[in-house]
Every structure is written in structure tokens, then in C-alpha cells.
Amino acid sequence: MNTPTSLQNASHPTAPVRALIADDERLLRDQLRARLAEVWPSLEIVAEARNGTEAVQLTEEYHPDLVFLDIRMPGMTGVEAARAIAQLPTDEDTADGWLGCEIVFITAYDQYAIEAFEQGVVDYVLKPAERERLLVTVERIQKRLGQRHLIESADAKESVAPQVGMQQLLQKLATQMNPAAVPHLRWIQATVGQNIQMIPVEDVLFFISDEKYTRVQTATIEALIRKPIKELIDELDADLFWQIHRSTLVNTKYIAGVSRDLRGRQLVAVKGHPEKLEVSRSFTGLFKGM
Description:
Elements: E1 18-22, H1 26-39, E2 44-49, H2 52-62, E3 66-70, H3 78-86, E4 102-107, H4 110-119, E5 123-126, H5 131-154, H6 166-177, E6 187-192, E7 195-200, E8 206-209, E9 214-217, E10 222-225, H7 229-235, E11 241-245, E12 248-251, E13 255-260, E14 266-270, E15 273-278
Parallel strand pairs: 1-2, 1-3, 3-4, 4-5
Antiparallel strand pairs: 6-7, 8-9, 8-12, 9-10, 11-12, 13-14, 14-15
Helix pairs in contact: 1-5, 2-3, 3-6, 4-6
């Protein structure tokens, strides 16, 4: 098998692809770096992290195109780090137009990696990293980054970032790794006027957050809670609630349709409510072809 050709950065076409490696074992980080240098010489390793928390912080700082995450690290696991990375500000929220990053899990636990790989959202590398398997991973990653670059070059409004489908996959992986985890949220305790009301999650049309509060909207009630979207994502069923914007979750049961405004932005129409919800560029792939 030939060594894959280099791929230019999707956001900056003249720059190399930039990557971050996160593993709590230094020797394994060194080994992966060496193997990557063999199979992808032009890849730039911009940072290394010793745990999940560092991985999130360094991703936010460096905005890499690719993050290699050990699936099991002390403290914040690779799955938890991936979920946090998926919530980092992207596209219109950042000055450099960063559209998020591809995720590759480093794992010795084949049962988790295989499911992630089959979903097509992320790839994986088994410990210890072997050249032939790493070549397969690199070729797949290059193909995905290349597709993202071509789509953005053709029409920035049609960008497809790796966040699409990530919520569902990471939630399933987290559940597999921790079967005793807290079950999905069923009730929302929210403030309605001067009263506290219990709202069934299945009745919620959408959630919209600002810096301090999250609005809970049903067909008949508008309420407020002090819980950010990033926490709700961890507690809600990702198959039922889709994130369509950094600050918005919508109940898929109540999606009436998707249209475009004069600026080309996708807008989600919601059954039982007149408000239309904007889809950010990072999540337009959820409604590809609409």
C-alpha cells in the first residue's frame, strides 16, 4: 500500500493538516507520533495532551483538524473529551472559521472501536499502532477532510462538519463504557412565572440557551432553567434531541420541515410553534439535500 499523499488544511488551503494527540501514556504518544511521521509526513502535530481535560483545552487553543484520543484516560475519558470538543465554538463563533475536527480514538478495547468505526463518524487506532492499520485510518481521514474542503470551496453554506451524528455515537459509547450511568432525563424542573413546574421531556419542542439561562419551549409553556446546552446534551436522548446550533436543541418528533432564508441559512420549522430555528453551518449536514 502506498503512503497517502498530503492534504491541505480545509480552512487554510496552503497549510498542512494539523493534529493533536491525547494519551496518558507518554511512550504510546511517542510511538503514534513516530508512526504518523512514517505514513503521513506532512501532518503537523501541534500539541500533545496527557488527559481528556488537556485535550479539550488544547483543542480550543490550537483548533486542529484532527484529534487522536485515547478512549480510556484517567479523569475525563476520551469519549467525554470528544463530547466536550464537539461543543467547542466553531464557524461563525470563531475568527479563523474553524469548523471542528475529525476524531480518531486510540483504543485497546476493540468492541468500542468497532462500533465507532462502523458508524462512519470517527475512526480508530488499536494499541499498539501498527503501520498497515494506521494507513487505512489516514486514508479515510484524508478522504473526509478532502470532502469537507471541496464542499466548503463550492459553497460555504453547505459545509458538513464532523459534529453531525457525533452526539448519538458518543452517547452510545459512553453508555457501553459505563452501564451504570444515569439514565436519560425524563422530566425538566423549570421556572414558569413565579412557579416551579415539572415538564415531561417528551413534550419539549426545543431548548435555546443564552449565557445564563436555557429556554424550555413546549406547545403551551415557555419556561427557564439554569442549565447550559452542553449539560443537557449529556442527559437527553441524542436520538430524540438533535443539536442544530451551539445554543439550540430540537425535538426530532416536532420537526415540521426545513427551509432557507434569503441569506441561504437553513431554518427548522417546529410543529405547534411559529418560531423558526436557525441551523448553524456546523450542523447543516443533518438536513443534507433539503
